[in-house]
Design brief:
It catalyses: D-ribitol 5-phosphate + CTP + H(+) = CDP-L-ribitol + diphosphate. This is Ribitol-5-phosphate cytidylyltransferase. Its EC number is 2.7.7.40. It holds the Pfam family IspD. 36% of the residues lie in helices and 21% in strands. It is globular. The protein is of the alpha/beta class. The chain has one domain: Spore Coat Polysaccharide Biosynthesis Protein SpsA, Chain A (Alpha-Beta Complex), CATH 3.90.550. It is built from 8 helices and 9 strands. The two termini are 33 Å apart.
């Protein structure tokens, strides 16, 4: 079985908006999170679409989705975790409790604030996760990447042709991800930035899915302007 997992656990400090987390800000007349859920609903492969958000926002999220989306029968809203990876693990615990986990259980995890993913990207994630067990959506780096270990002086300039910018979805065999995560030490968990790194740290392969330059993450106020322009281009 395949499950869509939409990560809406963040509060969006970089957006500078104290009133509400950024996933609830409006773009094109609808909250960002609604646009994202709509992209998942059109994929019939998903047994269920699991939206994870801060506990105080659960009822608000449910009400928003019911207001803007005609059929939410396959959508459930549950509490996220204290970290990104704990949020992902909460989705796996939910699946295990309600459906059970086996070698065929796939999760497609995606940022709630990336509303411009495509049907093709989702389908490729499902296909690669089924075939390989783990995949990450990326685009080739267009700018030179500079490494500065001390955050002051350049220590290395990697070959740009081998560099990629990570996006989401990231998709996994859920049983494998659960096993790898539970084997991590507390020190290892502290340095994690996303679930794909769990596989890399444990020597497991993560395959690349081709993303899109417009599959942006809405992080800063400027991104809202870009998002409005992209929505106008979709019409």
């Amino acid at each position: 079985m395949e499950f869509g997992v939409i990560l809406a656990g963040g509060i969006g400090k970089r957006m500078g908006n104290a009133e509400k987390p950024k996933q609830y800000l409006q773009v094109g007349g609808k909250p960002i999170i609604v646009h994202t859920v709509e992209k998942f609903i059109v994929c019939d492969e998903f047994e269920q679409i699991i939206v994870l958000c801060p506990q105080p926002w659960i009822e608000h999220t449910k009400n928003l989705l019911k207001k803007h989306i005609e059929n939410t029968d396959r959508v459930v809203v549950i509490e996220g975790g204290e970290t990104r990876n704990e949020t992902v693990m909460n989705s796996i615990r939910y699946i295990e409790k309600n459906y059970g986990l086996d070698e065929e259980t796939i999760i497609v995890t995606h940022d709630a604030v990336r509303p411009f993913l495509t049907y093709r990207i989702i389908q490729d994630n499902i296909k690669f996760a089924r075939k390989f067990g783990a995949c990450d959506t990326v685009i080739p780096a267009t700018d030179t990447i500079v490494e500065a270990i001390d955050n002051e002086v350049i220590s290395q300039i990697p070959d740009r042709s081998k560099m990629y910018q990570g996006q989401t979805p990231q998709s996994f065999n859920a049983l494998k991800l659960k096993s790898l995560y539970e084997a991590l030490t507390e020190e290892e968990k502290e340095i994690l930035t996303d679930a794909a790194k769990i596989f890399v740290m444990k020597g497991e392969k993560v395959y690349l899915v081709e993303g899109e330059t417009f599959n942006i993450k809405i992080t800063y106020p400027y991104d809202l302007t870009v998002a409005e322009s992209l929505l106008k281009g979709e019409k």
